[in-house]
Amino acid sequence: MSAKTRLAIFASGTGSNYQAIDQAIKTGELDAEIVLLVSDQPGAKVIEKADENQLAKFIFDPKDYQNKCEFETEIVNELQAHQVDWIVLAGYMRLVGPTLLNQYQRRIINIHPSLLPAFPGLDAVGQALEAGVKLSGTTIHYVDSGMDTGEIIAQESVRVKPGMTREELQTAIQKIEHELYPKTIQRLILEGDSF
């Protein structure tokens, strides 16, 4: 039996996708283990969730560094120390730079609350409502140097009902995210099990 695939979760916020992935591991739907949380927000709620699970963490404030290369070099050291196979961005609100991309090519994935290429970047839910679209949803993609421009791995749509509020649409999208992300990670692990 080969060792479990080792995941690092990168998050800046509440960590609802981190929780969904953790839950899928606990129920056996996802054959992996989370070995590290990386967060660029020292006050993020996700840190409390990681503490409850006694998870190793690397928490940093970008303002303490001269540049992105400097903090990403430290992140790479942490990832290597924890023998991370895949980096899973779960609400990490920062563009990934070349220091990380070069070390983990096609091993970094992100989830975004729109049907890319529509509405990349911040506030995708607000952008969708503003545009008056009938369908929104979520996209899982490989991370490249652009803003939500990497190759698409999986998508699932949500119908935007007339008069829907931002909170309602956000909740509907998160509900499918929490099912799609663990399933997609499992598929990637099965497809690429030659580490």
TrEMBL record:
UniProt-listed Enzyme Commission number(s): 2.1.2.2
Known pathway: Purine metabolism; IMP biosynthesis via de novo pathway; N(2)-formyl-N(1)-(5-phospho-D-ribosyl)glycinamide from N(1)-(5-phospho-D-ribosyl)glycinamide (10-formyl THF route): step 1/1
Binding, N(1)-(5-phospho-beta-D-ribosyl)glycinamide: 15-17
A UniProt-annotated Pfam family: Formyl_trans_N
Residue ranges of the TM segments: none
Xref: InterPro entries: Formyl_transf_N, Formyl_transf_N_sf, GART
Residue ranges of domain Formyl transferase N-terminal in the record: 6-185
Keyword terms: Purine biosynthesis, Transferase
SUPFAM superfamilies: Formyltransferase
Superkingdom of the source species: Bacteria
Binding site for (6R)-10-formyltetrahydrofolate: 68, 93-96, 110
Residue numbers marked as site, Raises pKa of active site His: 148
Annotated active site: 112
Gene3D superfamilies (alphabetical): Formyl transferase, N-terminal domain
Family: Belongs to the GART family.
Task of the protein: Catalyzes the transfer of a formyl group from 10-formyltetrahydrofolate to 5-phospho-ribosyl-glycinamide (GAR), producing 5-phospho-ribosyl-N-formylglycinamide (FGAR) and tetrahydrofolate.
Entries under PANTHER family matching the protein: PHOSPHORIBOSYLGLYCINAMIDE FORMYLTRANSFERASE
Protein name per UniProt: Phosphoribosylglycinamide formyltransferase
Source species of the chain: Amphibacillus indicireducens
Record lineage: Bacteria, Bacillati, Bacillota, Bacilli, Bacillales
Protein encoded by which gene: purN
